[in-house]
Design brief:
By secondary structure, this protein is of the alpha/beta class. The chain has 22 helices and 17 strands. Helices cover about 55% and strands about 15% of the residues.
Length: about 775
């Protein structure tokens, strides 16, 4: 211990004897006021540094331990906090994936444990979501079941409605087909007798010398044509209603149509003393594109009405251009008259079907009320319209507006014969040189009438009873043997459709003209004819100009001789001295029957006697077929008898036969009609026998020489077959036989048969060969 001054302390370093450094530290410790002790502590420097180093390591170790402990504590604390959060995120993910039963695992909550509080709230939320989901699923399942039930009900209703609609559609389709069939049948039944009315009136007109009879015949012809016009209007109206009316789109001249219409109607204008004024704007194009037939139909109707309802004054036809575009022109056709005029109420109903301005029973003017309605439909279908303005007593003006395409060159105009008026004025050949026509029809009378029409223009046709005979004959003779085939549609054995299709299937028959000759003229029937391969059709009733225009259209031009109207080719009238004793009037309309045979009394007498011989047997066949329940055979037999008796003018028998046919078609009893038919046939047959005698044919000429013995020559055998079928080509066949056998014993019977055939007595010609019977069938004919 060293004394030192007051407050003195410090340290110093001294060197020991061994050379080591010693750190000395001193401090003054006061004992009294002025006294104290100085404490000195000496230690070696290395020892102090060693202790300090040890202390430093201790501190470092302690620090490391503290740090690790802190980290452990932090990790444990973090795990305590983040583990529930991760679990919460995992549970939330599972809930999002649809595992609604997922929940947080809850430990015993502690005060201030926010994580536990959050987990509990989350579990509560999950439970509510699960509850809401279960409720919603239940409601969805309920609604789904309701929707499924409703869907099933709807499907059942839809299926029922679909079945109802299908049934309704099938019924509508069947009704449409029934309507078409009804219209076709009605058209056929109307046109068949109408054909006789119009055709026979034209044939009978030149046969009469009595002015009163000529007047009656003219009125019959006009009435028949009026009825035919009405039938055409009704068919047009049904086509318009069904949307089946077809329109052409061909080049034509409107001025040409006007000229033809005026030519047709000018005689009516002259008869009534009217003035007809025509005014066509020079701007009206020369060539237009559209349907000339329909435009002409509109003009003829409007002009005809103007003439009908105008007793004096004038009729003016004006055509003007309303608008012109690059490819089309808008035309106005005005027809003005000074006739009766119309009131506003009458104009409003003027274009309705079956409606007329004067609908009273005592109206002065005739007509069905269809013409203007059809004209309006036609104009509208051609992008046009028709209207009228009028005042009572001041005349009327009808305006037709049409949009028509522009044509390019006059050379594109429709050929003559495409319109009604033009066809009536068309020049026709007077006769034909070496023209060959095959007539196919199962009714002999029909064949005879066609043969009469053909004979007036120098054509001797070849006859076939049905389609099979026609096919067989054409296959043997070849496609070039005939210039034209006139084919009936409804025939036994093979109908016209089947025959045409078979012919078209043979090589070389593609170009042979085959014309349907039938009363089936409905649009769908014409389509069937075209589909079968027929080139054209001539509908019944057809007048002579129509028939001869058809011939001129299809027979080659180089076989046509001279040019004259068809009416100039009528057969000459039969003189009173040539007329035989006819049956009494009232039972047989012999005037109409004779006219059907173009005035050929011998031919008409032949078929009357044939009816007297076979009529009762045909009725017996009808009675047998009815008794055995073969209604279709009854219908066919009655239909044949309708045509046969009608063509001969046996009107009562025709009426009863028509009743039988109608009853068989409806599958009804026809006993009363058959009894009436038998009585009418017997009555007519008795009258025929009284007029011509009871024999079945005229007495054949007596031959001075006997026929050669031995087998018949092939040409004679073929000729006899022609006699059996009353073939109109028999005369030509006789000349061929004479060229072959003229120097033999066959010459005498051949010359005798020629006289019989020229009087159309084929039975008498056949009986000239009594010792020879044909044993071969008709299909062997070469």
């Amino acid at each position: 211990m060293l004394k030192s001054g007051q407050g003195m302390d410090g340290n110093f370093v001294e060197n020991a004897a061994n050379g080591r450094s010693i750190l000395a530290t001193y401090r003054f410790v006061r004992v009294a006021a002025n006294e104290g002790w100085t404490l000195v502590v000496r230690r070696e420097r290395d020892e102090i540094l060693h202790e300090l180093e040890q202390h430093a390591w201790r501190l470092l170790l302690f620090g490391l331990l503290f740090t690790v402990s802190g980290l452990i504590i932090v990790v444990l604390a973090a795990r305590h906090v983040t583990s529930p959060i991760r679990e919460l995120a995992n549970v939330a993910q599972r809930l999002a994936e649809g595992e609604l039963s997922a929940r947080m695992t809850l430990a015993k909550p502690h005060r201030g444990d926010e994580v536990a509080t959050l987990a509990a709230a989350f579990n509560t939320l999950a439970e509510r979501v699960e509850t809401w989901h279960a409720t919603l699923a239940s409601e969805v399942a309920t609604r789904t079941r309701e929707l499924i039930d409703h869907q099933l009900q709807l499907e059942e209703q839809v299926e029922k409605r679909t079945a109802d609609l299908s049934a309704a559609l099938a019924a509508a389709t069947q009704a449409d087909r029934a309507k078409d069939a009804f219209l076709a049948n009605v058209s056929h039944e109307l046109r068949t007798p109408l054909n006789a009315v119009i055709g026979l009136a034209e044939l009978a007109r030149p046969l009469s010398r009595d002015p009163r009879q000529q007047d009656y015949i003219d009125k019959i012809g006009h009435a028949g044509k009026s009825l035919a016009h009405l039938i055409n209007d009704l068919l047009d109206l049904t086509k318009i209603a069904a949307g089946r009316l077809k329109f052409e789109n061909i080049p034509f001249s409107l001025r040409g149509i006007i000229e033809r219409c005026l030519s047709v109607l000018m005689h009516q204008v002259t008869e009534k003393g009217l003035t007809l004024i025509e005014s066509i704007d020079p701007a009206v194009p020369d060539v237009l594109i559209g349907d000339p037939l329909r435009i002409e139909q509109i003009l003829l109707n409007l002009l005809g009405n103007a003439i009908k309802f105008t007793s004096n004054g004038r009729i003016e036809l004006r055509i003007s251009v309303l608008n012109t575009e690059s490819t089309r022109v808008h035309l106005a056709i005005d027809i003005e008259d000074t006739g009766l005029g119309l009131s506003e109420p009458e104009i409003t109903q003027l274009f309705q079907p079956f409606t007329q301005a004067d609908a009273s029973m005592t109206r002065k003017f005739g007509g069905s009320g269809l013409g203007l309605a059809i004209c309006k439909h036609l104009a509208e279908k051609m992008n046009g319209d028709i209207c009228a303005r009028s005042q009572p007593g001041s005349g009327s003006t009808f305006r037709v507006t049409l949009w028509l395409a522009l044509g390019e060159a006059p050379g594109e105009l429709a050929k003559p014969g495409t319109t009604l008026a033009e066809s009536a004025l068309q020049a026709l050949p007077e006769a034909y040189d070496d023209a060959r026509v095959l007539v196919v029809d199962d009714h002999p009378i029909n064949r005879e009438i066609v043969e009469a029409l053909l004979s007036t223009v120098g054509i001797t046709p070849v006859m076939a009873n049905n389609g099979q005979e026609a096919v067989d004959h054409l296959r043997v003779s070849g496609a070039n043997a005939f210039d034209l085939v006139l084919m009936d549609i409804q025939m036994p054995v093979m109908d016209g459709y089947s025959a045409t299709r078979e012919l078209r299937s043979y090589s070389g028959f593609e170009a042979l003209p085959i014309i349907a000759m039938t009363a089936h003229i409905m649009e769908h029937e014409i389509s069937l004819q075209r589909a079968a391969g027929m080139n054209d059709s001539i509908g019944k009733p057809f007048d002579q100009p129509t028939f001869y225009r058809m011939l001129a259209k299809w027979i080659p031009v180089h076989k046509q001789r001279q040019a004259a109207t068809a009416m100039d080719t009528l057969p000459p009238a039969t003189s009173d001295q040539d007329m035989p004793a006819w049956p009494v009037p009232g039972i047989i309309d012999s005037a109409a029957g004779l006219a059907r045979f173009a005035g050929n009394a011998a031919r008409y007498r032949h078929w009357l006697r044939d009816f007297a011989d076979q009529g009762r047997s045909e009725v017996s066949r009808i009675e047998q077929a009815m008794a055995s329940g073969q209604r279709e055979q009854v219908r066919q037999l009655a239909h044949a008898l309708v045509g046969r008796s009608g063509m001969l003018g046996i009107t009562r028998a025709q009426a009863f036969a028509r009743q039988v046919e109608a009853a068989a078609s409806r599958d009804e009893a026809a006993d009363a009609a058959i009894i009436g038919l038998a009585a009418a046939v017997d009555e007519a047959s008795e009258q025929i026998r009284r007029a011509f005698g009871s024999g079945t044919a005229d007495t054949p000429p007596t031959l001075a020489t006997s026929l050669p013995a031995g087998p018949l020559p092939a040409s004679i055998l073929a000729l006899l077959r022609r006699f059996e079928t009353a073939d109109g080509d028999s005369e030509r066949a006789i000349h061929e036989c004479l060229a072959e056998l003229g120097e033999t014993a066959w010459a005498a019977p051949l010359h005798a048969s020629l006289a019989c055939v020229r009087s159309f007595d084929f039975d008498a010609a056949r009986r000239l060969f009594p010792d020879h019977e044909t044993t071969h069938t008709l299909d062997e004919r070469s």
